[in-house]
Amino acid sequence: MSIQTHLSMLIDLATIDDDFDEKEKYMVYMIGKANGLSKGDVDDLIENPHPLENIGSLSFDQKFEYLFNIIQLMKIDHEVFITEIHYCEDMAERLGFDRGVIGTLSKHIYADPSITGDRESLKKSAQKYLK
Asked: Which end of the chain is less congested by CB atoms within 10 angstroms, N or C?
């Protein structure tokens, strides 16, 4: 999955509640920057998100990273809406996981990006939900 598609999916989730919070934007910009995109590149994606690619063909590690990011983004503004949970569950299914992976992982993924759980343990948990 290209970084543009990855960010487009995060933007899609961030705007599902009609409120693209500053913390959500900050996270999107930081992920973009970490992957070599300029602020202008990310601004362009916010205005014109890329369509979703065939995400089912991603590696397990790529799928996990996406799940991790969407859960973190869902929680970053400290308001979790049912529409956001459903979006995450739908994306989990599109990635080849059972919907329950979102509930399991979200217990150990924090809103603050500086706090990270044991990723290897989370990966093992997520692997149990692969279809």
From this structure: C
